[in-house]
From TrEMBL:
It holds the Pfam family ACR_tran. The keyword Membrane applies. This is Efflux RND transporter permease subunit. It comes from Chitinophaga agrisoli. SUPFAM superfamilies: Multidrug efflux transporter AcrB pore domain, PN1, PN2, PC1 and PC2 subdomains, Multidrug efflux transporter AcrB TolC docking domain, DN and DC subdomains, Multidrug efflux transporter AcrB transmembrane domain. InterPro entries: AcrB_DN_DC_subdom (IPR027463), Acrflvin-R (IPR001036).
């Protein structure tokens, strides 16, 4: 078989050259399309279901939320196993699918199942899906360098301006905010005053909830002009919350301010984010989607940051604290340098030992053609260009060179023997 292939190749050199050129061009196209990352993604094919029920203990969360979700999600097609974790006020369900299952198909199946499970959960508890990212999807961390801005305002800038702008970048799954204080209206009830006015916490909650709403009316025409009637009732200040009436006693309205203290404060925090020991910072984590090119996504995020920075308040700027793009470029540069060095060394060794430039040229041509063709297989199997895959390719160059040297030396030997035999026949 090999003999026939070699014979056919020798008789059809032009076709072989065209096929090799076509394979090299296809390989170069595959190199451009292959996603680049620093580390291989070995995480499981999973969908995360997050449920929040604040104020409840882990045991109650386990019994009322985690257990019903785990038992019902186990019946989904292509699910290997389901893991659940319960903690104070939160529940996490990790649905692990088969490796060959499409992640977005898996997310659809989980959403379909959740639509039937929700009625089994406590009132007001709604499970949500986590981002469509992987365990190594944290490609960039940044903080806001704003020395003259308080943490509450920094967090507001991050949550209501920066986050929404960066989430529009193609390839970004989520911008996870961290640090600072999430501002909120807080109504601190005085139990003694509630007892004095014969009120309950539920009365205060209902009063605030019912007075923070808008409702529509109807359309009516007058003098040939149509008018839309609606009420504007959303609360917009501390004073409006304090003036909400709860109940009327002896023709005197009891307001929220009479039984509670209304203030603007930060949400209760369980930790802080400190940078370089210089104080607390506010920032975000860029999470990449499944199967995206990490290097390209990082470049797009940085370009978007330049646009977003123009709308930040004076004195506020971005400070990138973790950038996987630098590691990616370093890794690719190192592999490229290794490949070039190996090609040069191989050329010198072949020329010195064979002392035949055509044999050396044939071996040198094999290296880029084989490397380009290997990226076709990487794309076919969904493998990215990372430290491990590129290192494997670099190590495989030795096999390519050995094969070329053996074949060249074998051909050179047979040609020499054939030439000596023909010369002897001519002399006889």
């Amino acid at each position: 078989m090999v003999h026939h292939i070699i014979t056919w190749s020798l008789r059809n050199r032009f076709i072989v050259i065209v096929l090799a050129a076509g394979l090299f061009a296809w390989g170069c196209f595959a190199v451009q399309k292959n996603p680049i990352d620093a580390i291989p993604d070995l995480s499981e094919n999973q969908v995360i279901v997050f449920t929040e029920w604040m104020g409840r203990g882990p045991q109650l969360i386990e019994d009322q939320v985690t257990y019903p979700l785990v038992t019902n999600l186990q019946g989904i097609s292509k699910v290997k196993y389901v893991r659940g974790t319960s903690m104070f006020g939160m529940s996490f369900i990790f649905v692990i699918f088969d490796d060959n299952a499409d992640i977005y198909w898996a997310r659809e199946r989980v959403l379909e199942k959740l639509s039937t499970i929700t009625r089994q959960l406590p009132q007001g508890v709604t499970p949500t899906l986590g981002p469509d990212g992987t365990g190594v999807g944290h490609i960039l961390w940044y903080t806001l360098d704003a020395p003259d801005v308080d943490l509450g305002e920094q967090r507001a800038i991050q949550d209501w301006y920066v986050k929404f702008a960066l989430q529009n970048v193609p390839g970004v799954s989520e911008i996870a905010s961290f640090g600072g204080a999430q501002q909120q209206y807080q109504v601190t009830v005085d139990p003694n005053k509630l007892l004095y006015y014969k009120l309950s916490v539920t009365d205060v909650l209902n009063a605030v909830r019912t007075n923070n709403n808008e409702s529509g009316g109807r359309k009516f025409e007058m003098s040939g002009i149509g008018y839309i009637i609606k009420t504007s009732g959303y609360l917009q200040s501390l004073e409006q919350i304090g003036n909400i009436p709860i109940k009327t006693q002896n023709s005197i309205p009891i307001r929220v301010a009479d039984v509670a203290t209304v203030q603007m404060a930060g949400e209760t925090r369980l930790g802080i984010f400190d940078q370089d020991g210089k104080g607390e910072k506010v920032g975000g984590i860029v999470v990449m989607r499944y199967g995206e090119n990490a290097d390209a996504v990082i470049d797009r995020v940085k370009a978007k940051m330049l646009e977003v920075a123009k709308g930040l308040p004076p004195g506020v700027k971005f400070d990138i604290v973790y950038d996987r793009g630098a590691l990616i470029k370093q890794s690719v540069s190192s592999i490229k340098r290794t490949l070039i060095e190996e090609m040069i060394v191989v050329s010198i060794v072949v020329i010195i030992f064979l002392f035949h430039w055509r044999s050396a040229l044939s071996i040198i041509i094999q290296i880029p053609v084989t490397l380009a063709a290997s990226f076709i297989l990487l794309n076919a199997f969904g493998i990215s260009s990372n430290i491990m895959s590129l290192t494997g390719i670099a190590l495989a160059i030795g096999v390519i060179v050995d094969n070329g040297i053996i074949m060249s030396e074998n051909a050179y030997k047979h040609l020499s023997e054939r030439y000596a035999q023909k010369k002897a026949e001519t002399a006889a």
